[in-house]
Amino acid sequence: MTKKLFLAYSLAVIIALLGTETSKAQSLSGSDMPPLKPIEKTVFDTAYTEIYYEYSFRKDSMKSKWTNGQTILLVGKKCLGFMDYYQWQFDKANDSLYYAKQSSMSLITNGLGLMQNAVYKYPLVIDKGTGRAIVQVQNINNYEYTEQMPVINWNLTDGDTLISNVPCKKAFCVYGGRKWNAWYAPTFHLKAGPYLFSGLPGLIFDIKDAKNN
Predict the structure, then answer these.
(1) Cα distance between residue 206 and residue 183, in whole Å
(2) Domain boundaries, the chain
(3) Does pLDDT of 195 surpass 90?
(4) 3: left (phi over 0), alpha (psi -120 to 50) or beta
(5) In angstroms, rounded to a whole number, what is the distance separating the alpha carbons of residues 138 and 198?
(6) What is the DSSP letter of 112?
(7) Rounded Cα distance, 207 and 143, in Å
(8) Would you say residue 91 has pLDDT above 80?
(9) At CA 6, angle to CA 176 and CA 89, rounded to 5?
């Protein structure tokens, strides 16, 4: 079982557990369910800032249907963490209910809606000192890998806009075989953004691929 990666924020957790057993479909009463357990985790740092990103994508680029979600970037002195916001809330609920000596059924009651909204599948932790990223992939086969942060060659270009009333400037890059357009805020001196995107002279407020997928 792969442990969750954590950037602790009070009782908050960051990275989703891989290898959770899937139960066979059956009807269970509360007394039939196994007791709650605290989530196995590795704590890397304590976050002092939370940044929320709306997350949207098209599963099929030939269709117009969008899948929408919410992600969170947690910033610590030593590490960055990025994951699905609803998974983060579910993990917090799990441990909170465990320490309150609640039943597994209480987690289902409180957490089912959260997990139905969780769509982002690539939680990660970045060590700012070494530039190494630990990435977990939640798919049919769950796995984890470590890689050096990519060197992204950003091109700063003309363009100004306001996002959440914050002045932002435009940049673009090519990463993963796609062109990406980004808006960053020079007044926020954090060279970070969602997923592995970083290196601009300011916090990334918005980024999307040029084909808008």
Answers:
(1) 5
(2) 4-148, 155-209
(3) yes
(4) beta
(5) 23
(6) H
(7) 26
(8) yes
(9) 90
